[in-house]
Amino acid sequence: MNQQPDWEWEIKPENKWYKLNLAEVFSHRDLIITFFRRELLSGYHQTVIGIFWIVLQPILTTLFYFIVFSGIVKVSTDGIPPVLFYMSGNILWSFFSDCLTGTMYSFLFNAHIYNKVYFPRLVVPLSTLLNHSVRFGIQLILFLIVYAGYSVFSLHILPSLNIVLLPILFISIAAFSLGLGLMLSVWVARYRDIEHMMNFLLRLLIFITPVVYPASLVPQKFRLLFWLNPVTPVIETFRNIFFNTGQIEPKYICLSLFTSIMTLFLGIIIFKRSEIKVMDTI
Fold first, then answer.
1. Among 18, 149, 186, 270, which residue has the least CB neighbours within 10 Å?
2. pLDDT of residue 44
3. Rounded CA gap, 255 and 146, in Å?
């Protein structure tokens, strides 16, 4: 007659790389909302105008770009009103850079929580993405209000039917920023040089992304490298949807989406495989 084993603990080998336990993350969706509220409120704690900074930031940045690049440098905007041109590029770039940097510091800024209680570590980056997605949604509404004002009183333009691509553009830029941020969060926790390098690179990357200039100004010999930037097709397609300028490049949109999804997949694998070991180095 078979007897039941008398041990209480069973040691199993480490999970395979493809076993990411994402269902566990979904089961902690309430915790994602909790972290999201914490980030949203703490980001504007002890400020005079509070959450209205979400609206004021793109306005001030757009005003600065308008004065410098349109008023002083005289950079072409391909016939698009400079205010709308810079605002469209700015809200997309800010969403990308804020998600990237916010996710990049997941381990460093939350080590005191990670060391005290267990929960899926991916909850924190997802709450960061949710936080910046809400901010992006508010800023997008601001853009649409300004766009509607120009459409009624000046330009008399309407978005093209390609507006159905907006969810794809959002998924692409969100997946790319989250995936890259997950990879960087592991490396930043181990090598602080990565933090300084990325802060420096982000200041440069904005100038190889069509935030303050249109794609038409890029020399032909640099076009391929220009379009290989996953953020470039997103911004250019967004402007084409609302201003009917330039051309939508389906192959580059597909390449951007594919690159973003693969980056996200690789980022999750690196993050999940390293989440325990990283805490020993902080």
1. 18
2. 72
3. 31
